[in-house]
TrEMBL record:
Primary localization: membrane
Domain HAMP, residue spans: 308-360
Pfam families in alphabetical order: HAMP, His_kinase
Cited SUPFAM superfamilies: ATPase domain of HSP90 chaperone/DNA topoisomerase II/histidine kinase, HAMP domain-like
InterPro entries: Bact_2-comp_sensor_kinase, HAMP_dom, HATPase_C_sf, Sig_transdc_His_kin_internal
Subcellular location: Cell membrane
TM spans (from-to): 12-35, 252-272, 284-304
GO molecular function, one term: phosphorelay sensor kinase activity
Membrane topology of the entry: Multi-pass membrane protein
Protein name as catalogued: Histidine kinase
Annotated PANTHER family: SENSOR HISTIDINE KINASE YPDA (PTHR34220)
Keywords, in A-Z order: Cell membrane, Kinase, Membrane, Phosphoprotein, Transferase, Transmembrane, Transmembrane helix
Single GO cellular component term: plasma membrane
Lineage of the species this protein comes from: Bacteria, Bacillati, Bacillota, Bacilli, Bacillales
C-alpha cells in the first residue's frame, strides 16, 4: 500500500477542528443574537406601548373631565333663568330678582361640585351690575372677579382657556358680553392629576403646553428641558403620527410621549430619561453579554483543551517520526496518560526499538557479506596473469635483462603480498594508490611497453585518508582487459587521486577505441540499478562495496573520457560513513 504523506505547512488537526466548530457555532450565535435583539426590541416596544397607553388613558380621562366642565358651562350660559336675569334684571322687583339670583347661584354650586378640578364657578351679569360666585357669593361690580374676568373675555381671538398669573379659567360670554360665565380650574388639582401619570415611571415628568404658549402646567422642578423639548416636538410632529419618540437634549436621551388635550388645545407631554425606560432590560442585557463572554471563554478553553489533548501528543509523535527520518533511533516517547495516545506512544517506542535492532542486524550482515566478498576477491588470482608474469621474468632472464627481471619480480611480489594479506579492510590512500601503480607497471611490462600509464602524485594532505582495500586495482584491471585487447599501440592510462571537503575522488581514464556509446550507457545503467545479482569481481563489486559502506552519493561513476575511452570516477563521501 502506498501512503501519501501530508506536509507540515498546512493547518494542524486541532486548528481544523476548532475552525469547523466555530463555523458551526457562528450561525447559532448569530441567530441567538438576532433573536435576543428582536426580543429586546419587542420587549422595549411593549414597555413603551404600555407607557403610551397609560399616558393616553390619563390624558383622555382628563380631556373628558374638562370637556364635561365645558359642556356644563355652555349649558349654563343658555339657561333661561340666567337669560331672564340678563335681559329683565333691572325691571324685576326685589323678590323676583332675589329668587333668580339664588337659583343662578345654586346652579353654579352644582357645577362646582360636579368636578374636583373646579375651584370656583361664577357669572358676571352686566344688567344688574353684579357677579354671582359659588364660593364668593353675590358682589356688586366692580370687584376682584369682574376686574379679572371682563378684560379676559374681551380677548380676540378667543382662546380655548384663559390664564391669569397661575390661575386657569374657562370663560364663555353671551348677549354681547352681557353675560360672562367663568369657571376657575384648580391648578393644584390639575397638577395632581398630572402627577398620577408620572406614577407610570419613576423620574418621569408631565406638562401641558404648546409651542406658542410654552408650558402651561408642569410637574417638573427643573423646566430647562421643556422649551427645547416643545420645539423638537413641534418640528417632529410634521407628518409624524407616532405618539412616542426618543429625543436628544443637551447630551441626554429622553423618551417622550405626547397626547392631545383638545379641551385645552394643548398637548399633554410625558418625558422620562431613556435609561429609565430600558432599566428593566439592563439586567437582561447584562446576562446576555455575560453569557456571550462565557461562550467566548468556553471556546478558548475548548481550543486549549484540544491543543493539550490532541495537538501536543500529535506534535510529539510527528517530531519523533522526523527524528527517525534522520536515522536517530535512540529515542523514547514518554506518556503520562492512559488514553489512545499512550497506546500509540508505546507502539512507536516498540517499533523504533525493533527497527533499530533490525537495522543493526542487517548492517552487520551486510558488513559480513562485504568482508566475505573481499576475501573472495583476494582469492581470485588470475592464473593467466601469474603465468604471463613468470613467463616475462623467464624471457628477461634469457636475454640477460637481470635488472628488468628483478624489478618485475619485486613488483609482482609486492602486488601479491598486498592482495593476499589478511590485515585491516582499510588502507591509507597512498598505499592503495601505489598498489594500483604497481599493477600498471606489471601490465605495461606484459604488454611489451606498447601501453604506458600516466599519474599525478597524491597531495600530502590526502595521503593519510583511509579507503577500502582493493578498490582501485579492479578499475585499472578492467582497462587492461577491455580497452587494449585489440592490440592497439600507444595505449594510455591516466590516473589521479584527490581529497576535498570529505570526498575522496579517484579518476581512471584510457584512450581505448572499443567503447561504444551503447556499451557505456549499458554500463551506467547497471551501476545505477545494481540489484545485487550482477558480477561481484569487477566494477560492480567496487560500486556495491562503496555504496554499502558509505551510503548514497558514494560509488563508481562512468562517462566518456577526454582521451576517447572510458572515464571511471570513484567517489567516497567519508562524512556519510556509519558511526
Amino acid at each position: 500500500m502506498k501512503l501519501l504523506a501530508t506536509g507540515t505547512k498546512g493547518w494542524f488537526v486541532y486548528q481544523k477542528v476548532v475552525v469547523v466548530f466555530i463555523a458551526f457555532m457562528i450561525p447559532l450565535v448569530a441567530m441567538n443574537i438576532w433573536v435576543n435583539y428582536k426580543e429586546m426590541a419587542f420587549t422595549k416596544k411593549t414597555i413603551t406601548d404600555s407607557a403610551v397607553a397609560g399616558a393616553s388613558f390619563y390624558a383622555n380621562q382628563l380631556d373628558k373631565e374638562l370637556y364635561f366642565i365645558r359642556s356644563q358651562q355652555l349649558q349654563f350660559v343658555n339657561d333661561k333663568d340666567l337669560q331672564k336675569l340678563s335681559f329683565q334684571g333691572s325691571t324685576l322687583d326685589e323678590y323676583a330678582l332675589f329668587e333668580l339670583i339664588n337659583q343662578t347661584k345654586d346652579r353654579l354650586s352644582a357645577i362646582q361640585y360636579s368636578s374636583e378640578l373646579i375651584v370656583d364657578a361664577g357669572v358676571y351679569v352686566k344688567e344688574i351690575g353684579k357677579t354671582i360666585s359659588s364660593i364668593g357669593g353675590i358682589s356688586d361690580t366692580p370687584n376682584d372677579d369682574s376686574e379679572i374676568i371682563v378684560p379676559l373675555a374681551g380677548l380676540t381671538p378667543k382662546p380655548s382657556f384663559y390664564q391669569k398669573d397661575d390661575r386657569l379659567f374657562f370663560i364663555e360670554s353671551e348677549n354681547n358680553s352681557g353675560i360672562i360665565s367663568y369657571i376657575e380650574i384648580s391648578t393644584s388639582r390639575l397638577r395632581e392629576a398630572l402627577r398620577q401619570i408620572t406614577m407610570l415611571y419613576q423620574e418621569s415628568e408631565v406638562f401641558l403646553g404648546s409651542k406658542t404658549l410654552g408650558h402651561v402646567l408642569s410637574t417638573a422642578k427643573d423646566q430647562n428641558v421643556i422649551i427645547p423639548l416643545l420645539a423638537q416636538l413641534e418640528e417632529g410632529n410634521k407628518g409624524n403620527t407616532n405618539p412616542s419618540r426618543v429625543i436628544d437634549i443637551a447630551g441626554a436621551s429622553y423618551f417622550v410621549m405626547t397626547c392631545p388635550v383638545g379641551s385645552l388645545n394643548l398637548s399633554l407631554v410625558m418625558y422620562v430619561d431613556h435609561n429609565e425606560i430600558t432599566r428593566p432590560l439592563r439586567q437582561y442585557s447584562f446576562w446576555f453579554y455575560a453569557l456571550f463572554v462565557i461562550a467566548i471563554v468556553v471556546l478558548l478553553l475548548y481550543s486549549y483543551s484540544l491543543n493539550f489533548m490532541i495537538h501536543r501528543p500529535l506534535s510529539k509523535l510527528t517530531k519523533a517520526f522526523k527524528m527517525i527520518e534522520t536515522d536517530n533511533l535512540n529515542l523514547v516517547i514518554e506518556s503520562k496518560t492512559r488514553d489512545e495516545f499512550h497506546y500509540l506512544f508505546h507502539s512507536f517506542n516498540r517499533m523504533a526499538f525493533r527497527l533499530k535492532r533490525s537495522i543493526e542486524e542487517n548492517y552487520e550482515h551486510k558488513i559480513a557479506i562485504q568482508q566475505s566478498e573481499l576475501k573472495q576477491l583476494q582469492s581470485q588470482i588470475n592464473p593467466h596473469f601469474l603465468y604471463n608474469s613468470f613467463f616475462n621474468i623467464y624471457m628477461m632472464c634469457k636475454v640477460g635483462d637481470s635488472d628488468g627481471a628483478a624489478e618485475l619480480s619485486q613488483k609482482l611480489g609486492s602486488y601479491y603480498q598486498y592482495i593476499t594479506r589478511n590485515g585491516s579492510d582499510e588502507m591509507p590512500l597512498y598505499k592503495e594508490y601505489q598498489h594500483a601503480l604497481d599493477y600498471c607497471e606489471i601490465q605495461c611490462i606484459r604488454f611489451s611497453n606498447r601501453i604506458r600509464y600516466e599519474y599525478e602524485e597524491i597531495p600530502d594532505y590526502a595521503k593519510a585518508v583511509t579507503v577500502p582495500r582493493l578498490i582501485i586495482q579492479p578499475i585499472v584491471e578492467n582497462v587492461f582487459e577491455h580497452a587494449f585487447e585489440d592490440g592497439m599501440m600507444n595505449g594510455i592510462l591516466s590516473m589521479t587521486a584527490d581529497y576535498r571537503e570529505g570526498v575522496v575522488r579517484i579518476k581512471v581514464e584510457d584512450n581505448g577505441r572499443l567503447l561504444t556509446d551503447e556499451t557505456l550507457q549499458s554500463l551506467q545503467e547497471q551501476l545505477r540499478n545494481d540489484s545485487g545479482q550482477q558480477e561481484k569481481t569487477g566494477l560492480m563489486n567496487v560500486n556495491n562495496r562503496l555504496q554499502l559502506k558509505y551510503g548514497a552519493g558514494s560509488g563508481l561513476f562512468v562517462s566518456r573520457s577526454q582521451l576517447g575511452g572510458l572515464c571511471a570516477e570513484l567517489m567516497i563521501r567519508t562524512q556519510n560513513e556509519r558511526k
